Amino acid sequence: MKQYFSIGETARLNNISIQTLRYYDKIGIFKPHYTDQGNGYRYYHIKQFFYLDIIKYLKYIRTPLEEIRRIISSNPEHMQTFLEEQESVIEDEMDNLERARRLLHRRKNQLKEQLEICNREKGIVYFRYMEEQTILKVATPQVNPHDQSDLYFRKLVDVLEERGDMVDNYYGFIYDLKPYKDSRDIYCNNIYTTICKGEKVDIEGKNIQLDTIPSGEYVCISFDWSTKHYDSYYQELYHYIESNSIQTDGKVYQISLPTNYSSLREEQFLTELRVLKK
Q1: pTM (2 decimals)?
Q2: Do residues 185 and 51 share a domain?
């Protein structure tokens, strides 16, 4: 039975590249059984394949080569300790990937919603049903929809990033539905962003709350954000509600979604004002 194999045969039998075997030889983690001094050819003994399997396994679980060097020169106790540590690392990475998956899913749904809003006629009142949303909100005394509210929004970002999560592009204001003569008389109660239902967020001592925006049918109006025309869009929505005697929960939920993603371009947002029917 054949016991010695060339580097090419070893590579083929072990599903590994010749270049990788040469590199492993160079850094000293897997050397050939002997090298022909006449022609420089490397030869591996079949019993070495078992040790190559160990290296391949460690690589598969994303073990750094320097750690592999230490493990193969140590004992089973060292490997056990390392595997326990690596298990914890992988579990953390899986948690992060799951958060990324949820964020991606939420962002896809938001983009779908945004495109649906874009397809509606701007400045015209309409109705649409919305599912319940879980939100993270911060109180915003004396903040007007026209004000720079970025510093308040950064508080929400900080809370999410502290736990390894990321905020998406969805943010909104909540304020009272009233017959304002000028939109600069509006003062927002909260700024919010959406999060996944059931998320656990540490908000202790941060003046931030977890809340929900109820499901139901909303009276809405959408428009491309404009300080100049905000009043007319708000008045259109308010007068529609009043003239049709629509009962509401007395709140306006304003959301703004970016329609471009480069800081080098002029800022553009799609805005929707929503009022929940009772």
Answers
A1: 0.70
A2: no
